[in-house]
Amino acid sequence: AGPNLKEWLREQFCDHPLEHCEDTRLHDAAYVGDLQTLRSLLQEESYRSRINEKSVWCCGWLPCTPLRIAATAGHGNCVDFLIRKGAEVDLVDVKGQTALYVAVVNGHLESTEILLEAGADPNGSRHHRSTPVYHASRVGRADILKALIRYGADVDVNHHLTSDTRPPFSRRLTSLVVCPLYISAAYHNLQCFRLLLQAGANPDFNCNGPVNTQEFYRGSPGCVMDAVLRHGCEAAFVNLLVEFGANLNLVKWESLGPEARGRRKMDPEALQVFKEARSKWPELSSVLWFGIN
After folding, report:
1. pLDDT surpassing 50 at residue 255
2. What count of Cα atoms within 13 Å lies in the side-chain half-sphere of residue 164?
3. Phi, psi (rounded to 5 degrees) for 173
4. Nearest Cα to Cα of residue 106 among 60, 153, 77, 68
5. pLDDT digits (tens, 9 = 90+) for 200-243
6. For 169-209, how does the pLDDT look when each residue is reduced to its tens digit (9 = 90+)?
7. How large is the average pLDDT for residues 263-284?
8. How far is Cα 251 from Cα 247, in angstroms, rounded to an integer?
9. What pLDDT, on the 0 to 100 scale, is given for residue 156?
10. Alpha carbon of 68 to those of 99, 111, 221, 234, 242: distances in Å?
């Protein structure tokens, strides 16, 4: 669309024809957090009928509802007011993002809590490739993650990728990356890692979950414990997985050799904790690990 991208977006995705989208005062007020203007405008029926309208506002490109705009900017008072005036909390933008998801992405705890209290789906939308829990786990926002968990968010995996909802023709997952527990470890967010496990996250996810480990890239970790070691996570991560019942037999000793791939070198203390815990498992073979007599 070139220089006319904004006009093209309006034509393609706005809820009304282009000539009816010029008045963006409602959306502009939501963007700047002007609660007084929102109150004034929504006294008129013409604006009340547009409260869930997707439009391109003053500084935006993607057509969005006023609620989605206010949530993006973190104007909690405007988010609360718009909801009380009838804004639908789980409407998605053209990218499949809900107001809750963009509030989480932009780090707005207050808006997140207001939306959750109003009944927003803590898992976001099935039309988007990520979830609020996943993002909070990746960036280490334990406070936001706590709120999502409190309202029943799925802590194991992006909810639209689970085996009972995946369409039969979809490609099976071949990576641990979709798992919030994995991503919190990869970014060394220990508090989020602990919260996920405490909330019931499967410490062995991707070994008995909807992932085909046979098709994993060569050298990639096959389970969360494997990933924790390969990413050089501290011993506390290993201790937590052991505490929450991770199957230590899933990690193959061959994968922990010099050629193991990862962002960082293995933490010696974490590796020692793993070896000691592994040695206590009844399934341990008579051959000691790593060639040690």
Report:
1. yes
2. 2
3. -70, 140
4. 68
5. 999 987 654 555 556 565 666 778 998 999 899 999 999 999 99
6. 334 455 677 889 999 999 999 999 999 999 999 998 765 45
7. 81
8. 8
9. 86
10. 4, 11, 37, 38, 41
Question: For position 153, what pLDDT does the model report?
Answer: 96
What pTM was computed for the model? Answer: 0.82
Strand partners, 196: none
What type of residue sits at position 259? E
Tell me the pLDDT of the chain averaged across its residues: 81
Q: For 173-178, which contacts have Cβ atoms below 8 Å and span 24 or more sequence positions?
A: 173/206, 173/210, 173/211, 173/212, 174/211, 174/212, 174/215, 174/216, 174/217, 175/211, 175/216, 175/217, 175/220, 176/205, 176/206, 176/211, 176/220, 176/221, 176/222, 176/223, 176/224, 176/227, 178/134
Q: What whole-number distance in Å separates Cα of residue 77 and Cα of residue 159?
A: 30
SS3 55: strand
Q: Are 72 and 42 in contact (CB under 8 A)?
A: no
Instruction: State whether the Cα torsion 281-282-288-293 is positive or negative.
Output: positive
Tokens of 1: 């669309």
pLDDT in tens, 61-71: 678 899 999 99
For the chain, the residue count is 293
- Residue-wise pLDDT for 98-144, tens only, equals 999 999 999 999 999 999 999 999 999 988 888 999 999 999 999 99
**Residue 223 and residue 32: Cα distance in Å, rounded?**
45
Structural domains of the chain sorted by starting position, each given as residue range(s) with its CATH number in brackets: 1-128 (1.25.40.20), 177-293 (1.25.40)
CA gap 67, 97 in Å, rounded: 12
- CA quadruple 142, 145, 151, 156: dihedral, nearest 10: -130
Residues 238/194, Cβ–Cβ less than 8 Å: no
